[in-house]
Design a protein that fits this description.
- Helix content is 11%, strand content 42%.
- The protein is mainly beta.
- The chain has two domains: 113 residues, Immunoglobulins (Immunoglobulin-like), CATH 2.60.40.10; 94 residues, Immunoglobulin-like.
- A hairpin with an 8-residue loop joins strand 14 and strand 15.
- The protein is elongated.
Length: 244
């Protein structure tokens, strides 16, 4: 009888010890929720922000499986996005904990309106229980129509080779929260370091585009094209005269 009571007490203590062990260690095995949020809340119709910062992600663990994607809220397929973090998805290594920039993809909105989408982050923390979890971060963004170009002002006098010419692009109204993206086309034989586009900041109605003239540029007139809308009828032209 006494022996039986001793065995029951020992079994009870073992059970309590095992329970305490599990309680103390389950935290070490649990996933730690990441953070995610959109940092660009204004987009422009027909513009892709591929490779540009649009959101931020944060991890307080060391993920060995980690990726992010986005549902843009316009019935298009979920898009996988890149970030400034070193890509380590299922390769056994881990990303250092910290904050990273999420870069835009190829997606473009077709209609100016408000959209409700979701940013997703998939994560598995190193040395935790198996299984990659998907975390959702809802967002609301505004998509704006393009603001047409009103005029382009270019210097009237000839520009010397090796100088930099400044052209002032004026919009028909102030740029919205998304900024307004002005695209340009110029002769690469005349100008160097030609940007693909220049953004007019929110609430501004003009921007200056600087173009260095090559030292071996041919003399004569050189035409440049500017547009915010891809419709050829919406393009504005300017002409620069290169001195002999």
């Amino acid at each position: 009888m006494i022996t039986s009571m001793i065995h029951k007490a020992m079994d009870s203590r073992a059970s309590v010890g095992l329970t305490l062990f599990l309680l103390c260690n389950c935290g070490a095995l649990a996933q730690v929720n990441p953070g995610g949020q959109m940092t660009r809340l204004g987009f422009e119709v027909g513009v892709s922000y591929e490779g540009e910062p649009i959101a931020q992600e944060k991890t307080v663990c060391n993920p060995d499986e980690w990726s992010r994607s986005i549902d843009w809220g316009d019935q298009t397929p979920e898009e996988t996005l890149k970030s400034s973090a070193v890509k380590t998805y299922g390769d056994g290594s881990a990303v250092p904990k910290g904050s990273y920039v999420i870069l835009g993809g190829k997606h473009q909105y077709n209609t100016a309106q408000q959209y409700k989408g979701t940013l997703y982050i998939r994560q598995h923390c190193l040395d935790t229980m198996p299984g990659t979890r998907k975390y959702a971060f809802p967002f609301t963004i505004e998509v704006f129509a393009r603001v047409p170009i009103q005029s382009v002002e270019a210097p009237a006098s000839p520009i010397r080779r090796g100088d930099t010419v400044g052209l002032i692009v004026k919009l028909e109204g102030p740029a919205p929260l998304s900024n307004t993206r002005v695209f340009l086309e110029a002769d690469k034989a005349v100008f160097s370091n030609i940007p693909q586009f220049k953004d007019v900041p929110a609430n501004a109605s003009e921007t200056t585009v600087l173009l260095p003239v090559r030292r071996n540029a041919p003399a004569g007139d050189s035409a440049l094209n500017f547009w915010t809308d891809p419709d050829p009828a919406a393009r504005k032209s300017a002409s620069i005269s290169i001195a002999p």
